[in-house]
Design a protein that fits this description.
The chain contains nine helices and six strands, in the order βααβααβαβααββαα. Strands 3-4-2-1-5-6 form a six-stranded parallel β-sheet, with helices on both faces. Helices cover 41% and strands 14% of the residues.
Length: 255
């Protein structure tokens, strides 16, 4: 495995006192962006792929350590066969030709979701990208592909039931942390901030367990128009929020 070379993206020390460790993004609006410009849906997805590069740059410059992108939901399989084929072809292209750029930036690329639904060729590209970047340390980029939070929780419950049946665990003694270890997201911290673009205000089956105490931000910008300035504005907004995790602020801390 080749070692990551010096980054083509300069790293700036974050000026903000509080930077989210983990940011998760629901990248929404590719189709509407394209239709508003009289373009094909796939043109919107291509423009959205370029926005991913800008988002990654914004995360690096801000000092974020984990970035999860909702790239292809389990429900997206219900779209037309043509659009699904376009999406998977675009994903294959970027995995084949753009992962070297992430490697240059010292970004580790990993995946969550039901990858078995993709063809063997695409699964091979996914595996290759993961192996190439596995030792990188600046940013962990998690792509959610064929992912649904309910499906992940259901699979976790099934695996817990099997482990209990085999006497490997006592389910009555399980904690929330124990349950979380059965989720695909277990290697990563829960998101501190979840962002959705395009003006929609729902999570759409994304990180439902992990988002229990996440801050939420909803942007009116369409995903293909998202850039580093939007990311920086999100960081500034996050730094002004008070995260209580169910606790009440004392009078001293409120002063």
């Amino acid at each position: 495995m080749s070692s990551p070379r010096s980054s083509s993206v300069a790293t700036a020390e974050p000026e903000l006192a509080i930077v989210p460790r983990h940011v998760a993004v629901i990248m929404d609006g590719n189709g509407r962006w394209a239709r508003a410009r009289g373009k094909s849906v796939i043109a919107g997805h291509r423009a959205g792929a370029e926005a991913v590069r800008r988002c990654v740059k914004g995360a690096i410059l801000s000092g974020v350590r984990y970035l999860t992108l909702y790239a292809f939901s389990s429900e997206n399989w219900q779209r037309t066969a043509e659009e699904v084929a376009d999406l998977t072809s675009l994903l294959r292209f970027y995995l084949r030709h753009k992962v070297a750029e992430l490697h240059e930036q010292n970004v580790r690329l990993t995946f969550i979701g039901d990858l078995s639904r993709f063809d063997s060729g695409l699964r091979g590209e996914i595996e290759r990208a993961g192996k190439l970047t596995a030792q990188n340390t600046r940013l962990t980029l998690v792509l959610a592909l064929s992912y649904g939070a309910r499906d992940d929780m259901l699979r976790a419950a099934q695996n817990i039931a099997l482990a209990a049946r085999d006497g490997e665990i006592d389910p009555t003694m399980m904690s929330e942390q124990d349950f979380g270890r059965y989720l695909q997201t277990s290697p990563f911290p829960d998101p501190d901030l979840i962002v959705r673009t395009s003006g929609e205000r729902r999570l759409s089956n994304f990180l439902l367990w992990e988002s229990a105490y996440a801050e939420l931000s909803f942007l009116d910008v369409m995903w293909p128009d998202f850039d580093e300035t939007h990311f920086a504005a999100l960081m500034a907004d996050f730094s002004r929020r008070e995260r209580r995790f169910g606790k009440r602020l004392t009078m001293d801390s409120a002063l």
